[in-house]
UniProtKB/TrEMBL annotation:
It comes from Stylonychia lemnae (Ciliate). The keyword Transferase applies. GO terms for biological process: NAD+ metabolic process. The gene is Contig4615.g4930. Keywords: Kinase, Transferase. The lineage of its organism: Eukaryota, Sar, Alveolata, Ciliophora, Intramacronucleata. This is Nad kinase domain-containing protein 1-like. InterPro entries: ATP-NAD_kinase_PpnK-typ_C, NAD/diacylglycerol_kinase_sf. GO terms for cellular component: mitochondrion. GO terms for molecular function: NAD+ kinase activity.
Amino acid sequence: MDIIRDNDLAQKDFQDRDLIVSIGKNHNEANGLILDTSRDNEALCNISIPVDQCEAAVAKMMTNLEANKFQQFLRNRALFSVVKTKAKPQNVEKLILNEVAYVDGRDMGQFKSSGIIISTGTGSSGWLFSARKINPEDIRAVQLLYGCEEVSESVNRNLASLINSTYVFPYDSDQLYYYVREGYVRHDNSFSWRSEGFCKEIKIVNEIIEGRILIDGYYNYSLEIGEQFKIKTAPDRSLRCLRFL
């Protein structure tokens, strides 16, 4: 077994290999997520493994792999595709593991917002979680609004944690979740069902001059005004993952 750092990786290193394991994140800054104390029970970006123990941890993983000490599970993905136009006749498709930043048979109308997050179950504990989470200060504000004279900080923390735990849904779920950030829509009916919810396919028409889509924190796609894109769940293209025992 060889351990090679990504900066030293060459094409020849992929030849005559039975198994190649990539460990680590995709070079996006995760400090803001790591410092989120409301998720300190999660092993985000392998933060539970100290840097000086990483190589030993890899060796242990390989030992467990050879001894069949692991469980398999699926992480559902979504498929992003752009509707072709005369200006952009090429096909654009991209698989999504976590989320897209920037329904199901219902016209949601026109939106004014700071962006839309569309997330898989894997992404529901990341950017989507950070955008939707309730802080203890929010609980405190509601209590004060209703005239509560005694406000317990520990109760507020527990309530916030309990509410936030419902925002994370399973990795293998065949549904996506969309969340409109700071949204506004002029409509007589309730805005709530338009602002967020589960779906299996969503189609969006870009109505700003310079639109942009960011997929999984690394893939950028520029949108022209009037350009359309679709995102749909793709359970048939799920990632097969291992959980070591």
